[in-house]
């Protein structure tokens, strides 16, 4: 059984400056908190945190991590609080314990590979510090080591989760020994029959195999020594789970006693790896296609090694891995090696160390020049996946989104229609607004209202490309649909004058004919073009109305006819203008006349952008199609501050400009732009762009300025 002193000794070996007293106090605290608690096997509960702390020390983590391991179950299972821990052990330890406690609450229940990968990422994202995930891994390793005492259902559930989530996670982090041990333990509980068979077979053939291993090692050793290559050579069976997987993939039974052997040659220098490889291949014939150079092309988790298979003694196929000591340490410890080794010990610079972990490269990018491993520790405390957020569906699946994503992104990721009809969401059971920013670990449920539709403002709410594309597509379709209906009604209205109906012309194929004549592929396209005014109705009419009827002059265009069509069709929009009985419609203020609240105004329907608002006396008004004219007036409920251009003619006296701006100021009017010029006759022409609430305020301030001595006239501009 592990003793506390073993843990402290191991910690001291890797971190000579760590404080053993802190660890002792954590032990005492944990012992007191768990007093009276026992595990399923009858042992005192304290054995578990102690064992976990030893695994953490084996991973070469620091004192804070070892303390966190000792304390990791106190907040969840005892009366101790995180504040107690913070008060006694400081922020660092408290942060780690809190992180492990939070991970404890997550349950994974999908075997789907993509979901599992997202869950792994979520674990990392939520831990925010790699030490948290490593303490969690250590916790899981000890739990799986002691699964024996649980009932078979629970054994299988934990083993499944471990095999789906934690073993691959250990692999991703490059910690090989944890990965292999987890896999073999889970194998035993998930497939007890196969496990027992395989274990027995391997046991039965042990003597024979060990002799074979010794023989291979001896041959290799002699050969390498002869060429002055210094290396440690070892050989052993691969771990059971990988043999099992291999048998499953190849579809072969267990008939080869030696194919399951893995030999390792550990050299002291990089060049010796390739030298050793040459000697191996000159001793035994290499199996074609089995050589892999992971030194030149490391695996994503940073693993580096040469792999080759050869036909060894007695023509048995054996696998040989060749790597340097440093590569070997990385293979066993993975990401933990980052801070386990002092910089330079294996000739590694901070940059090279960072390069080893392609998976973490994103994170490490900004501290490439890092010299000190403890500094690395500090920086690992930031979000590891700052760009992504991981949330649960109600079924417990995990989905990944860009950071800042909202329930709308979630809805669109499930189904396009669910996105379109999303009207709200419940997150962890609470109703949230659509703008709510999803947090790691949230459980999201979408509220759907049949028949509701996306809004243009949704484009500002969503973050994911998919949701944006879906909303844009919907808006495009909707705009087209609206224009199609405007086009339809326009033609219908014209046809009525000739006592014709669009429906009948359509059925007779006349509309399609006319459309094709104007180079449209379909009736719809033609009608949309009419709506957008790319095609004028009178251009189309001769193709729809028989010439004899067309000769009868039609009645004059009814003013506002278009607006009636429009009103039926345009959606309600926000704005400070009331459009003839419809409030809240999209409005546009053109540059020409700058209407302000109180000005008599008139509106014109634009092509798909809502209504432009002009002053009634704006010179531009005559240029608009009377059919698109709409009656509009100002909303009495709200005032919008609007820009107005004013021109002041005056004498060119110093100080006059100051008096004018003083007048604006005392009337509560802000000036947004000034432009002054002097004429040859010593007159000044001053243009002001000012922001006013309404016409009254504008008139008041103009009157004030007019009274200033030296000002000859004030006028409001309309171009
Ligand atoms: Mn635990």
Q: What layout of secondary structure does this protein have?
A:
Elements: H1 4-14, H2 20-33, H3 47-58, H4 63-71, H5 74-77, H6 82-104, H7 113-127, H8 130-145, H9 152-172, H10 176-190, H11 192-204, H12 206-226, E1 231-237, H13 240-250, E2 261-267, H14 270-283, E3 285-286, E4 292-293, E5 306-311, E6 317-324, H15 325-333, H16 337-340, H17 350-356, H18 361-364, H19 373-379, E7 388-392, E8 398-402, H20 407-414, H21 416-420, E9 422-427, E10 430-432, E11 444-448, H22 458-461, H23 465-497, H24 502-507, H25 510-517, H26 523-531, H27 537-540, H28 547-550, H29 561-569, E12 577-579, E13 582-583, E14 587-588, E15 601-605, E16 611-615, E17 629-630, E18 632-634, E19 642-651, H30 656-666, E20 670-678, E21 683-692, H31 695-706, E22 711-716
Parallel strand pairs: 2-6, 14-16
Antiparallel strand pairs: 1-2, 3-5, 4-5, 5-6, 7-8, 9-10, 9-11, 12-13, 12-18, 15-16, 15-17, 19-21, 19-22, 20-21
The structure holds manganese (II) ion (MN).
């Amino acid at each position: 059984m592990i003793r506390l002193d073993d843990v402290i000794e191991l910690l001291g070996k890797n971190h000579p400056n760590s404080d053993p007293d802190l660890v002792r106090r954590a032990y005492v605290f944990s012992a007191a908190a768990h007093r009276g608690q026992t595990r399923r096997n009858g042992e005192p509960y304290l054995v578990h945190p102690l064992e976990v702390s030893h695994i953490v020390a084996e991973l070469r983590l620091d004192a804070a991590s070892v303390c966190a391991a000792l304390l990791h179950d106190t907040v969840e299972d005892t009366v101790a609080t995180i504040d107690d821990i913070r008060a006694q052990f400081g922020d660092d330890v408290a942060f780690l314990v809190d992180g492990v406690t939070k991970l404890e609450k997550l349950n994974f229940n999908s075997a789907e590979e993509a979901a599992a990968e997202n869950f792994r990422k979520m674990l990392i994202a939520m831990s925010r510090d790699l030490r948290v995930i490593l303490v969690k891994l250590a916790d899981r390793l000890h739990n799986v080591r002691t699964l024996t005492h649980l009932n078979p259902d629970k054994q299988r559930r934990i083993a499944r989760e471990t095999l789906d989530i934690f073993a691959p996670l250990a692999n991703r982090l490059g910690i090989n020994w944890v990965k292999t041990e987890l896999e073999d333990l889970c194998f035993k509980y998930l497939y007890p029959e196969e496990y027992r068979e395989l274990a027995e077979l391997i046991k039965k053939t042990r003597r024979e195999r060990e002799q074979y291993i010794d023989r291979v090692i001896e041959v290799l050793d002699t050969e390498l020594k002869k060429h002055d290559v210094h290396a440690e050579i070892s050989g052993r069976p691969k771990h059971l789970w990988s043999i099992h997987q291999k048998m499953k993939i190849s579809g072969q039974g267990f008939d080869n006693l030696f194919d399951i052997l893995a030999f390792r040659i550990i050299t002291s220098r990089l060049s010796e790896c390739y030298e050793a490889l040459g000697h191996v291949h000159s001793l035994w014939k290499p199996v074609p296609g089995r050589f892999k150079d992971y030194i030149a092309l490391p695996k994503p988790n940073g693993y580096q090694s040469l792999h080759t298979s050869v036909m060894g003694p007695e023509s048995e196929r054996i696998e040989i891995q060749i790597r340097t000591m440093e590569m070997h340490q990385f293979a066993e410890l993975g990401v933990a090696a980052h801070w386990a080794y002092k910089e330079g010990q294996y000739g590694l610079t901070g940059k090279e160390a960072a390069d080893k972990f392609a998976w973490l490269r994103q994170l490490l990018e900004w501290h490439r020049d890092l010299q000190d491993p403890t500094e690395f520790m500090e920086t690992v405390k930031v979000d590891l996946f700052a760009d992504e957020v991981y949330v649960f569906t109600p079924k417990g699946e995990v989905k990944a989104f860009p950071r800042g994503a909202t329930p709308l992104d979630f809805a669109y990721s499930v189904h396009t229609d669910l996105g379109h009809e999303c009207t709200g969401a419940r997150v962890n059971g609470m109703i949230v607004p659509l703008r709510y920013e999803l947090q790691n670990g949230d459980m999201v449920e979408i509220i759907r209202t049949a028949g509701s539709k996306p809004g243009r403002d949704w484009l500002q709410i969503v973050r994911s490309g998919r949701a944006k594309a879906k909303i844009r597509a919907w808006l495009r379709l909707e705009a087209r649909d609206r224009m199609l209906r405007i086009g339809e009604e326009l033609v219908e209205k014209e046809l009525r004058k000739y006592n014709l109906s669009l429906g009948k012309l359509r059925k007779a194929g006349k509309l399609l004919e006319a459309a094709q004549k104007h180079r449209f592929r379909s009736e719809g396209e033609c009608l949309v073009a009419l709506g957008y005014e790319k095609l004028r109705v009178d251009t189309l009419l001769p193709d729809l109305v028989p010439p004899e009827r067309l000769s009868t002059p039609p009645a004059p265009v009814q003013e506002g006819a278009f607006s009636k069509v429009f009103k039926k069709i345009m959606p309600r929009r926000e704005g400070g203008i009331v459009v003839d009985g419809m409030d809240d419609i999209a409005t546009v203020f053109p540059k020409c006349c700058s209407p302000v609240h109180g000005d008599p105004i008139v509106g014109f329907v634009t092509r798909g952008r809502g209504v432009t608002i002009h002053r009634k006396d704006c010179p531009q008004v005559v240029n608009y199609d009377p059919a698109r004219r709409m009656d509009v007036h100002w909303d009495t409920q709200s005032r919008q501050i609007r820009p107005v251009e004013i021109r002041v003619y005056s004498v060119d006296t110093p100080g006059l400009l100051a008096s004018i701006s003083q007048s604006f100021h005392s009337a509560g009017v802000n000036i947004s732009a000034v432009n002054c010029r002097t004429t040859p006759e010593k007159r000044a022409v001053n243009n002001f762009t000012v922001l006013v609430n309404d016409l009254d305020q504008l008139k008041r301030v103009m009157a004030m300025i007019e009274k200033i001595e030296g000002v000859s006239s004030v006028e409001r501009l309309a171009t």
